């Protein structure tokens, strides 16, 4: 059984020579392998750097477009709020006045007429008055 040295080196038996690597040749393979590995790592790092720059540029474009997107979103929300307010309009004093062209009249009965309906009813009444007047004139002339 072989005893190991107490020097703390592994793999060396007592009395044996230390193991050394063979001397590197002038165009040796370990240097070429290291250079190829380093070149590969450099190419990978440059690719990652280009990707990071591309992502940074994309984020900068998004950041520049962000105020426009926020303004558009707020405009759409204001439109929706306005539409909801118009559809559920009440007679509150603090709100904007309602569009009175299609608003029902307050003094009307339980079935409220809008202004266009009121205008149509007025025209119909005038036409009936004209027809009644023509009929009365014809009857008056026929009596003599």
Structure at a glance:
By secondary structure, the protein is mostly helical. The protein has 2 helices and no strands.
Describe the protein in words.
The chain is an all-alpha fold and 144 residues long. Helices cover 61% and strands 0% of the residues. It contains 2 helices and no strands. It has helices spanning 29-87, 115-143. The longest helix is centred in the middle third of the chain and has 59 residues, at 29-87. The radius of gyration is 49 Å and the shape is rod-shaped. It starts with 28 loop residues before the first helix and ends with a helix. The relative contact order is 0.03. The model has no long low-confidence stretch (mean pLDDT 80).
Portion in strands? under 5%
Order of helices and strands: HH
Shape: rod-shaped
Q: Which segments are poorly predicted (pLDDT under 50) over 5 or more consecutive residues?
A: none
Q: Radius of gyration, rounded?
A: 49 Å
What is the count of DSSP helices, taking H or I runs of 4+ residues?
2
Structural class: mainly alpha
Largest sheet: none
Total number of strands: 0
Mean pLDDT, all residues: 80
Distance between the termini: 159 Å
Helix content: 55-70%
Element layout with pairings:
Elements: H1 29-87, H2 115-143
Descriptive tags:
144 residues, mainly alpha, 2 helices
């Amino acid at each position: 059984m072989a005893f190991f040295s107490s020097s703390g080196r592994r793999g060396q038996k007592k009395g044996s020579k230390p193991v050394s690597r063979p001397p590197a040749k002038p165009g040796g393979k370990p240097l070429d392998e290291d250079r190829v590995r380093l070149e590969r790592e450099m190419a990978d790092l440059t690719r990652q750097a280009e990707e990071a720059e591309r992502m940074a540029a994309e984020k900068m474009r998004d950041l520049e477009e962000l105020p426009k997107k926020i303004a558009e979103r707020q405009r759409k929300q204001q439109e929706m709020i306005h539409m909801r307010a118009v559809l559920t309009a009440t007679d509150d004093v603090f709100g904007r006045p309602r569009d009175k062209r299609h608003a029902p009249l307050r003094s009307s009965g339980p079935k409220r007429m809008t202004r266009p309906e009121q205008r149509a009813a007025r025209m119909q009444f005038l036409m009936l008055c004209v027809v009644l007047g023509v009929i009365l004139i014809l009857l008056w002339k026929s009596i003599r």
